[in-house]
Amino acid sequence: MKRYFFIFALLSLLATAGCSRNIGVSGRVTFPDGSPLTQGFVIFESGPYQVFGRIDESGNYRMGEDRSGQGIKPGEYNVRISAQSGGGSDGAPLVRYVAVKYENTATSGLVCSVQGKTVFDMTVEKP
Description:
alpha+beta, Immunoglobulin-like, four-stranded mixed beta sheet, four-stranded antiparallel beta sheet
């Protein structure tokens, strides 16, 4: 009887561990005048865990969706935005598309709590 209980307990534990629920997060990044940020990345960070979503030409993003359609883990996230071009070894000047404060979670002021399917729209300032 102990053997069956052990097998049942082990299977229950494996089923629970395999069902970590990831959640879809999406949103739109715009400027105060309503125009969209048309490129870059939105990055959600919680400790060492980071997930990013590409910003499209309409300002929309989807967070953490990989080929399997997975979202991100539930939790509290500090958010930053990386939207720049140039500045490489080719001598092209660095061009920022959002204010520098959004490049760092300590200064962005953006925080998102993810518990269920989440829409997190952001209004950001231009450089």
